[in-house]
């Protein structure tokens, strides 16, 4: 399995756990893949409110109970 040992944010761990890739999430959320790469690897990066909403809408297809606070400290 590749990617072992790479730093991951809560969102990165969530999509890995569910077997999704950054590319899959990018297509589902319509958020740029480079932005998602940063969101999934940098624990301190907080995207804009609009980007968070797009990501959360796509994540809720996997877990309807997901909340923003599950992935970002507000």
Automatic annotation (TrEMBL):
Gene3D superfamilies: lambda repressor-like DNA-binding domains. It holds the Pfam family HTH_3. Residues 17-60 form the HTH cro/C1-type domain. InterPro entries: Cro/C1-type_HTH (IPR001387), Lambda_DNA-bd_dom_sf (IPR010982). This is XRE family transcriptional regulator. It comes from Cytobacillus oceanisediminis.
